[in-house]
């Protein structure tokens, strides 16, 4: 006789993670990356540049531009959020930190919405564990809470989430509103007001954040899943929600059309190398959730049309399809991580003990090795010993002078001790919990991210920031009325305006500035449209960490 569900879970296995520990763990993951750093290249500072233009009144709110150039992502809301944050922030708050605050809240929204999405998916009748002959199976509410804990840990464990979710880019807004939409669809059988608000805000937010097509695809999947509901107790309610989602999708489509937010940016594969790169991206970006998600699809293969499998599977397929067809592959794949984590969570009640042991050992070795490497390199930066890591840092970031921060050291040491305690707890004798297999992956990912953004923060800020480059240009030019630019990236434009406080003009467009900044790669094209005989090469401003970002500085001779 076939079991109606592959999940066999006793009540003793569904104890919750302590709420305080879970909250502190999430804060330890969210805050590093938003605190103590400047805008980084490339998308981070470019997006900040558009926000600053809006906040300072230099661009139209419905048409953000930077030096007359539109953004890479056809979005509005993310730039509005950053600009509003800068406008309302007190004077003692730096503009770049103020712009990061709403994006930190969007990451918090992503984590919270993922927890509740998995919770309501686990409440589905088809997702419930097998009923024991003499009782003792998991209580539905306790089971759903434990599964939600596992889903949240699976999301944090994904390697691709760390950097991109801590930037001030439209991708962070997109993942926040995508997860809110996933929660709304998951909660429709159980709630009315909360899912209605979540769907309205989620779909509209996706459209305004540059993903209107994905919003419509997700809504279409939600409508289909509700129409396919075969449960007599919820069939009528599902039909009403299908109609509601259809109306919301039409409204969102009209909003995106009215604001001219539809832009098809489809990429084309240029060979097998692209597919190999895409395969590597899919493997590491979604690790370790993707093996668990595949296991879920296999073990729950008889319930593929059930809400708890079909809904996250559709969200993941939409994200992967977008990843394969658009140039910004990693940022498109980012939107599928909450759905992937939800799928991974449903593998937990079906895993065998040998599999969980393999996950634990691999995770322990991998993240412990990463943590040791981070500490060794930091010690080498501080003391010069070991010599080889110190030499590598000096070679890759020439001119960098390390400093010691007691606060950063204390936080990193406390995090390392917590990791040691977590490993000891996981290896000890304790009651089984279905989320236990994801404690070490999530803890290790959070540990390494925190160590990088404490011990290595000065180095990363030096290597990934355009601040030194912009200040060198500003010092070389003095305080000119304006500076002409040609061929430089949006990120460099934003850095020169923010860090260098320079007034920029496009070269040759009604400009007669005394200085000209040129990207070396565009010099040949510049000579075609501009008389270079009136300019004299003054200097090459170098960016120590990357020679590709060097700039040529020309001066117009004074008559």
Structure characterization notes:
By secondary structure, the protein is mainly α. It has three domains: 11-262 and 281-348, no CATH class; 353-464, no CATH class; 467-555, no CATH class. 59% of the residues lie in helices and 4% in strands. It is built from 23 helices and five strands. It has helices at 19-30, 43-55, 77-88, 95-122, 140-157, 161-164, 170-187, 193-208, 212-227, 235-258, 272-285, 289-299, 307-325, 329-334, 337-345, 353-383, 387-396, 406-427, 439-452, 457-464, 467-477, 490-498, 523-529, and strands at 483-486, 504-506, 515-518, 536-541, 551-555. It has a five-stranded mixed beta sheet, with helices on one face. Helix 5 runs parallel beside helix 19 (439-452) and helix 8 runs antiparallel to helix 9. The longest helix is centred in the middle third of the chain and has 31 residues, at 353-383.
> Count of helical segments?
23
- Rg over CA atoms, rounded to whole Å, is 26 Å
Biggest sheet, spatial arrangement of strands: 2-1-3-5-4
Shape descriptor: globular
**Which class best fits the helix and strand makeup?**
mainly alpha
* Mean of all residue-level pLDDT scores: 91
User: What is the CA-CA span between the terminal residues?
Assistant: 95 Å
Beta strand count? 5
Report the major sheet: 5 strands, mixed
SSE string, helices as H and strands as E: HHHHHHHHHHHHHHHHHHHHHEHEEHEE
User: Low-confidence runs (pLDDT<50, min 5 residues)?
Assistant: 268-273
Percentage of residues in strands = under 5%
């Amino acid at each position: 006789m076939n079991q109606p569900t592959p999940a066999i879970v006793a009540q003793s296995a569904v104890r919750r993670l302590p709420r305080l520990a879970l909250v502190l763990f999430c804060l330890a993951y969210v805050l590093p990356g938003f605190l103590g750093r400047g805008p980084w290249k490339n998308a981070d500072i470019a997006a900040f540049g558009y926000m600053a233009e809006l906040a300072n009144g230099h661009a139209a709110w419905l048409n953000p531009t930077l030096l007359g150039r539109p953004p890479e992502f056809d979005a509005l809301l993310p730039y509005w959020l950053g600009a509003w944050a800068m406008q309302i922030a007190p004077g003692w708050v730096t503009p770049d930190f103020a712009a990061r605050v709403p994006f930190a809240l969007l990451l918090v929204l992503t984590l919270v919405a993922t927890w509740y999405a998995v919770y309501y998916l686990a409440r589905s009748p088809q997702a419930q564990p097998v009923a024991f002959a003499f009782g003792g199976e998991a209580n539905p509410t306790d089971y759903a809470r434990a599964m939600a804990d596992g889903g949240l840990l699976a999301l944090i464990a994904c390697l691709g989430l760390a950097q991109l979710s801590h930037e001030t880019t439209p991708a962070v807004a997109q993942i926040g509103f995508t997860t809110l939409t996933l929660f709304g669809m998951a909660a429709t059988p159980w709630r009315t007001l909360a899912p209605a608000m979540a769907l309205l805000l989620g779909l509209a937010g996706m459209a305004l954040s540059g993903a209107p097509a994905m919003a419509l695809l997700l809504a279409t999947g939600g409508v289909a899943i509700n129409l396919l509901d075969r449960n007599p107790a919820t069939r009528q309610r599902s039909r009403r929600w299908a109609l509601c989602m259809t109306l919301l999708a039409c409204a969102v489509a009209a909003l995106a059309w009215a604001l001219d937010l539809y832009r098809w940016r489809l990429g084309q594969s240029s060979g097998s190398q692209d597919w190999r790169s895409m395969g590597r991206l899919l493997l590491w970006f979604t690790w370790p959730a993707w093996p668990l998600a595949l296991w879920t699809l296999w073990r729950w293969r008889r319930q593929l049309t059930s809400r708890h499998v079909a809904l996250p599977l559709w969200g993941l397929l939409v994200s992967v399809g977008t990843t394969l067809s658009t140039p910004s592959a990693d940022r498109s794949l980012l939107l599928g991580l909450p759905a992937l984590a939800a799928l991974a969570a449903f593998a937990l009640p079906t895993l065998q003990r040998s599999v969980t042991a393999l996950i634990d050992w691999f995770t322990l070795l991998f993240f412990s090795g990463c943590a040791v490497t981070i500490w060794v390199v930091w010690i080498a930066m501080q003391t010069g010993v070991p010599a080889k890591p110190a030499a590598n840092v000096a070679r890759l970031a020439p001119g960098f002078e390390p400093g010691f921060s007691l606060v950063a050291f204390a936080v990193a040491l406390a995090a390392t001790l917590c990791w040691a305690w977590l490993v000891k707890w996981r290896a000890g004798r304790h009651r089984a919990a279905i989320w236990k297999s994801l404690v070490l992956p999530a803890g290790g990912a959070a540990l390494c991210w925190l160590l990088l953004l404490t011990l290595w923060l000065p180095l990363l800020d030096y290597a990934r920031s355009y601040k030194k480059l912009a200040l060198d240009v500003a010092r070389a030019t003095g305080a000119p009325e304006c500076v002409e630019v040609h061929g430089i990236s949006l990120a460099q434009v934003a850095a020169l305006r923010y860090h260098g406080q320079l007034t920029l003009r496009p070269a040759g467009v009604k400009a007669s500035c005394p200085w000209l900044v040129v990207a070396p790669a565009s010099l040949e094209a510049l000579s075609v449209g501009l008389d270079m005989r009136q300019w004299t090469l003054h200097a090459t401003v170098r960016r120590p960490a990357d020679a590709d970002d060097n700039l040529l500085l020309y001066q117009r001779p004074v008559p």
